[in-house]
Each structure stands twice: as structure tokens, then as C-alpha cells.
Specification:
Among the domains are: 66 residues, no CATH class; 106 residues, no CATH class; 65 residues, no CATH class. Helix content is 61%, strand content 1%. It contains 18 helices and two strands. Strands 1-2 form a two-stranded parallel ribbon. Helix 9 packs antiparallel against helix 11.
Length: 451
């Protein structure tokens, strides 16, 4: 029993010798086992830990060899420094983008493709605890190349496999993060500054007109209320005389026209102006359309397949000569155009009726992420009593159930009525273990949100 605990702990936890020794001594005390001498126990723990490390390295290296006999050789070759360069290929792939330029974006996408070419997702490593692979990858990412090159086999291959497997996802995240920064700094911020400047220039005129309209409206309402209270009839001439004490009739008509012009009826003038300015920034983003749309490394979950298909069509649209042959609605996916972009995409007064504004359509993609949640942190109050057992009792909160609830918020779900007994109920008590499993209402809400 003790041997099973020690070997299992050493295999599933990436702990140092001291931590593993302390857990081992604690196990022996809990089970009332006579403790051996400190040196004997320390030596035994060290041997078991070393065997677990060797097992980890051998398992990962064998998985790489089974997937492709040439893969271990290709991974080791990454440590060589190509002629005419200062860094090895491994060092280049380990380095994330550090500049927010188009050249850096191109390098980031090339890094994604180079790492994806190894196809490490095909390796069968399910039997290895994920935390062990993560620790192995962190070690490889933080170790200098010369030291890695001197590492004996199979440890060397195992480390390189873990590193490159980790970088498959990390490189894509880095490229998308850089793309978002480029869009924010070169597209959205520039367009916003332009619209803010334009709105500021019209603000004095709008304020003056609004004051006249407000004063006239106040007089108009007061007169109507007094007539209604007296039960009399509206005297139009008297009403106009009262209004003209505020301003001449022509001035009031002009003020009303200014307010109507500067405050669109859709109530979203700021966003309307921003979308128009974004469309004018098309030439800024055109090079990035090809870079992002033509890379074969990007994939999508089921709910994002349609969006990714639309992104991959953007390079072809960007090459089209819309001045000679305007873009038609059937050439784009109408379902991917947000409702608030319809006017900019389909109703550009400078283009033939019934055609699509290619520049506006392309820029809708970069405005989609404004206000979208992209990261979420979940923190549990350590001052509360928590239960992590399969069953829960006493004055404790069920950690698993509340974790599921908080993950629901991370996926965008809101609270529902407490009486429904769903995971997303608005209150939680002690030992609410029912929250560990999604109820029918929770499932339907997730399906509706991501279908």
C-alpha cells in the first residue's frame, strides 16, 4: 500500500524531493506506520522519484518515435544553428513576438506554420499526467540551448517534444494577440480618434441648437398643459407668439434641423461614425488580411467554422478590383455581417445600388472583438471552508459545484431564478453538490449561445 502511494504520487505530481519526502512522511504517520530512519526514507524517495522521471522521459520519447521514426531526429536538429544566423531554430520558435509591426506579424504566422509542421498533436500521450508534460515543457522553455543540446537521451527528445507540443497552442495565441494589438493600434484607435475629433468639432453647434430646441419645447409643453387644465381650445397664433419669445421662427426651425442632422434617429451616432471611419482604414489592414486568411495553421471549433471560412475568403476579396467590378451580396456571407454594420456594408451612397462595400465588409471582422470577453479569472476565497471530497457535509461550500457555476459565467451565462435548481442559480448554500452537473436549462442555454 505504501509502495503504491509513493510510486503513484511520484508519477502524478511534479514535486521536488523535499516535498515528496514530506508527503511520504505524512502518509506514514496518518497510517500509523513505524517511520524508518531519515536517511533510509530519503534515499527511497529519491530512487522512486528518479524512476518516475526516467519513465516519463522514456514514455514521451517512445510516443514520438511511434508517431514518426524521423520525428526525434527532426526535433534534435532544431538545436543546430543555421549558417548565417545567430540563433538555433529552437531558440527562434521559443521566442514570442516582441514588436507590434507588420513584419513581426508575418514572423509570428510563420512561427505558427513551422511549429505545426511537426504535427505533435498526433502523439498519443493520454497516459501521462498533463501537469508532468507542462513542467517538462517549462523546463525546456527556460533552459539555455547549449545545456539542452548536452542532455542525454531519451530525456532530450522528451523535453523537445514537450516544448514543441506546448508551443503549438502558444504560437497561435501569440499570433492572434499580436494581430489584435495591431488592429487596436493601427485601425480601431486611429478611427476612434478621427471620429472623436469630428464630433468635438460639431459639439458647439449642437449645444447651441439644443438649448434653443429645449427652451422652445419647455414653453410649448407649459402652454399645452395650461390649456388642458383650463379646458380651452388651442390658440395657434398665441402659441406661436409665446414660442417666438424664445427665438424667431426661422431660428427655431434651423436649430431643430441641426439637431436632427447631428443626432441620427438610430440613437447610435458614435458607433455609426466609428464604423464609417473604420471602413476608410481598409488600406491599413489589407496586408494583414492575406497573412491571417491564408495561413493553414488556424482552425476553429464547430461554432466558429463559418467565421473562419469567411476569414479565409478575405484575401481573394482584397485582390478583387471592385472599382471595375463591384462586389455583389451573393459573393459574401450575409450571416456574418452584424446588423449594426448593414448600413456601412450595403448602403454606401458612393457605390452602385445593390452592391457591397468591400472595404466596410472587410473591416467588420476587426470590429467584432470590441467589447467581447476574451479572458476570465476565477478566484476562490481561501477564508471560506471548502469541500473537495466526493461527498460533502457540514458548513462547507462544494468546490466542484461552485467551480462549474463560475465556469458558466466565464462562458457568458447569467444567473437564473433560484427555484429552478440549475447550476446557474443566483444563490448557493453549503454542500450544494447538485451544481456539479448541468441541468436541462443550463444545457439549453449553452446550446442557444454557441449553436
Amino acid at each position: 500500500m505504501f509502495r503504491a502511494f509513493l510510486h503513484g504520487r511520484a508519477w502524478t505530481h511534479a514535486e521536488g524531493s523535499v516535498t515528496l519526502f514530506n508527503h511520504t512522511a505524512g502518509w506514514l504517520r496518518r497510517h500509523r506506520v513505524l517511520l524508518p530512519g531519515v536517511n533510509v526514507l530519503a534515499r527511497h524517495v529519491s530512487e522512486v522519484r528518479t524512476n518516475a522521471e526516467k519513465r516519463l522521459h522514456a514514455t514521451v520519447a517512445k510516443a514520438a518515435l511511434r508517431a514518426d521514426p524521423a520525428l526525434p531526429v527532426d526535433l534534435v536538429a532544431l538545436q543546430k544553428t543555421p549558417e548565417g544566423t545567430r540563433y538555433s531554430e529552437l531558440e527562434r520558435m521559443r521566442r514570442p513576438p516582441t514588436r507590434t509591426t507588420g513584419t513581426a506579424m508575418k514572423g509570428a504566422l510563420q512561427r505558427v506554420e513551422d511549429i505545426a509542421a511537426f504535427g505533435l498533436g498526433r502523439l498519443k500521450l493520454e497516459q501521462i499526467p498533463p501537469n508532468r508534460l507542462s513542467v517538462l515543457a517549462r523546463y525546456g522553455l527556460g533552459t539555455k540551448a547549449p545545456k539542452l543540446e548536452r542532455t542525454a537521451e531519451p530525456k532530450g527528445t522528451a523535453i523537445l517534444t514537450a516544448v514543441m507540443r506546448h508551443l503549438e497552442a502558444k504560437a497561435i495565441d501569440d499570433a492572434l494577440d499580436l494581430f489584435e494589438i495591431l488592429m487596436a493600434t493601427r485601425l480601431i484607435s486611429t478611427a476612434k480618434r478621427s471620429t472623436d475629433k469630428q464630433r468635438l468639432s460639431t459639439l458647439p453647434q449642437l449645444e447651441k441648437a439644443s438649448r434653443i430646441v429645449a427652451r422652445a419645447a419647455k414653453v410649448f409643453i407649459e402652454k399645452l398643459e395650461s390649456i388642458e387644465a383650463a379646458g380651452g381650445e388651442v390658440d395657434v397664433a398665441a402659441l406661436w407668439r409665446a414660442l417666438e419669445e424664445v427665438a424667431p421662427r426661422s431660428v427655431m426651425s434651423g436649430a431643430a434641423a441641426i439637431v436632427v442632422t447631428l443626432v441620427p434617429q438610430d440613437g447610435d451616432s458614435a458607433q455609426t461614425a466609428l464604423r464609417g471611419a473604420l471602413a476608410l482604414r481598409y488600406n491599413t489592414v489589407k496586408p494583414f488580411l492575406s497573412l491571417l486568411g491564408e495561413t493553414p495553421a488556424l482552425e476553429a471549433a464547430t461554432g466558429g467554422v463559418r467565421i473562419l471560412a469567411g476569414v479565409k475568403k478575405l484575401p481573394a476579396l482584397s485582390r478583387g478590383k471592385v472599382g471595375e467590378k463591384p462586389l455583389l451580396p451573393r459573393e459574401i456571407d450575409d450571416k456574418l455581417v452584424p446588423p449594426h454594420w448593414h448600413q456601412a456594408v450595403y448602403a454606401n451612397a458612393e457605390q452602385p445600388q445593390g452592391t457591397v462595400d468591400r472595404d466596410a465588409y472587410a473591416c467588420t471582422w476587426f470590429n467584432l472583438k470590441i467589447g467581447v470577453q476574451q479572458e476570465s479569472d476565477i478566484m476562490f476565497n481561501k477564508n471560506k471552508l471548502w469541500s473537495t471530497a466526493s461527498t460533502c457535509s457540514g458548513s462547507r461550500y462544494d468546490l466542484r459545484g461552485l467551480a462549474v457555476h463560475e465556469f458558466g459565467h466565464a462562458f457568458g451565462l447569467n444567473h437564473v431564478a433560484e427555484s429552478t435548481d440549475q447550476v446557474m442559480g443566483d444563490k448557493s448554500g453549503y454542500c450544494d453538490t447538485y451544481m456539479r452537473k448541468l441541468q436541462r436549462g443550463d444545457t439549453l442555454e449553452m446550446i442557444n449561445r454557441y449553436k
